[in-house]
Each structure stands twice: as structure tokens, then as C-alpha cells.
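Entry 14. Two folds queued back to back today. First construct below, sequence then C-alpha cells.
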Amino acid sequence: MSNVSDVSNADTVWIEKDALIDRIPRSVAMALLFIVVVAIWDLVTRMGWVSPIILPSPAETLADLIFVGQNLISGQYMLEALWTTTLTVFYAFLIATAIGFSLGVLVGETKFGERAVMPYLVAIDTMPKVAFAPLFIAWLGFDISSKVALAAFIATFPIVVATAAGLYAASENERMLFKSIGASRMQTLLRLKLPTGLPYIFTGLKIAAVGVMAGAIMGEFLGGGKGFGALIRQSASQMNTPRVFALIIYLSLLGLALYFTVVWVQRRLVFWNKSDQPGAIG
């Protein structure tokens, strides 16, 4: 009898098979893609299709990667620059998280926030962020404060939207259940809406982790300072393109470190949520 039921289930249940390319292990797929990109890059530079001033060869970039790495390990001026940029990113991310979460709760929990505050936030977010850089520099000076302010300004809005969306994620039945047992508005927020909305909030934090890097480097480009952005501007002015590529790669590693830190915290706090959805990383 069990054999008959097994056969019927096999005939009626349809399971989509993964495409051949999707069966490749993630590490192997990433390695293959990296090799293909570098091979095309090397071919373009060897054939002279692009000026080396615009696109250096992989070998030249690797040489500068080693040089920058040695400079960082030996504790020379590049380590100080990287530390300055790291502090800027860290402080800006903390400030953006605090402000973005607070405004997100205001927008998601009150009609005033939704109807009065949110339109202004959207209007500010549609403005070109680079236009605010001179203002922050004029208000806060050329030190790290203006860079932190600009980076936090760029990273705040995604957290606001994600937090507000997360507070709406709880179903009507769940909210009615909490209301029927006499839970206060604060208890409903802390015990229902925030736990349910954590996946949304962490999505906003991951977007902010990327945006805060762009804001910090933009601030160092426009407002001087001693960070990696200033080193990139200096190398670009000297037409040292391999050095620019090397510095950008190290900055991407810093951004990845912040991003995957957020992913790690999410896995610890939101362990029940699946992270293998389309577009998810980590």
C-alpha cells in the first residue's frame, strides 16, 4: 500500500529542477567568474584596445595591490588613511542606524510620521547628495565630522523605509490577537511588530552598509582629509591608475567586511528567516 502512495506522490508532486549552471557550487562559480573577468581584462590591455592610462593591466594592478598591502602591514601612512576611513564609516553607520530606526518607528507607528514626516524625507532623499557636501564642510569643517555627517545622511533613508515597512509586516490577525489580550501599544511594538519586521530592518541596514561607504569616500574626495578617498584623489591626479584600482579594491574589502558583519548579526537575531531568497547575499 505504501508503494502505491509513493508512486502516486511521485506522479502528482512536481519539483522544479535546478538549471545546470545553478548546480555549480557557489565557491566554484565565483572562482570561474573571477577567472573569466580577469582573462578578458588581460586580453583587452594586451591587445591595446584601451589606453593603459585608463585601464591598467591585471599585472600592474596586482603589483600595486602588493605595494599597498605591504604599506598597510608595515604601519606606514596608508594604514593611518585606512583607519581614518574605517572610523568614518563606523561612526556614520551607527548614526545612520540610530536616526533611521527612530524615524522609521515614527513613520511606521504614527499617522503624523506617515503623513507629515515621510514626504519631507522622500523630498530630501531625491536631492543629489553630493550637493550637500559643501554644506556639511561649511558647518563642520574639513575634519572627519563632515565626512561622517555626509555618509550618515546618505545611509539613513534606506533604514527609515525598511523599518517602517517592517512594522507593517505583522498581519491583521496577529495585531488583533495582541489587542484582544489587552497588550499595550508599546508591548505590541516590542513583542510583535519589531520581531516580525527584523528581516526588513536588516535589509535596510545592508543597503545602508553599502551607501555609507560611498558617502565616506565622497566626503573625502570633496572635503579633503587623510582617508583613502584622499589617496585615491591624489593618485588619480598623478595618473597612477594602477594605484587607484588597488586602493578601490581595498575599500571594497572594507565595505564587504561591514556588509557581512550585518549579515552575521542578522543570522544570529533572525535565525528563523531564510536568506536564500533571490538577490540575497550571505
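Second construct, same run, same settings:
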Amino acid sequence: MKRLLVILLLLASPLWAVQPDEVLDDPVLEERARELSKELRCLVCRNESIDESNADLARDLRLLVRERLVAGDSDEEAMAFIVDRYGEYVLLKPTTSGANWFLWLAGPVMLLIAAGVGWGYLRARARAPAGQENAALSEAEKERLRQILDE
């Protein structure tokens, strides 16, 4: 029974990331803050949202989100404020605009280039004349090989 309780506590631990003193009195604002927090990356934990992270920086970001919403910012304005302050890396799902198009397209373009190079190599290899690997040794080469092996 104790083990089960410990396992359940460990599984539920990310739910405790938002501390009771962070929760807003207005349930609508709190729900908006939680939704925004799920879209922001913890800069310490990397691939964890600030809503799930127990890091101090994640707490600061959660408080900043709530502060912006209480100040009257829309969701977009609050996100823009945080992105302006911390950079686009703070977004768990980066935008597909501006310079990010290059990053989004780099993977598929590199795959196409690699496929083209591989295809060209295979075609060139198929068209190449039979190499000298299969040619028999001349008598002089056979004699030289015998001398080397006898040494």
C-alpha cells in the first residue's frame, strides 16, 4: 500500500508545479494563465513546460504570465511580451514565420539533397566500366608477388 502511494505521488508531482500562492482568484484568468503556461518552455528543464516545471525560473515565468494577465493583457500580448523578453526559444512550438522558415525547411531540403547525391552515386557506379580488380595478374606481377611472399 505504501509503495502504491509513493508511486502515485511521484506520478502526480508535475501537478504540484503551480504553487497555491501563484493561483489567481479569478478562475477565468487562472485558466488562461494555465493554458499559456503549457505553451511556454522552461528554460532550465528544456523540453518541459513552465506549467509542469518546479524550477525557480519556471515559477518566475508563471508569475510573469499571471502578472501580465492581471494587468489586462490579452493572451497574444502576454505571449508577445514574454517572447520579446526571453526570445522565441521560450515557445514550446516555435512559429513558422521569418527566419524560422529556413529552419523548418532545412531538414526536408537536406534529405532531398542526400537522396540526390546517393542516386547520382549509384547511377555513376552502375555506368562505370568494369574495373581492373577482376583482371588477371601479368607474369611479371606474379613473379614479383612470389618474391615478396618468399621473403
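Quick look at the second one. The chain has a mean pLDDT of 82. The longest helix spans residues 100-127.
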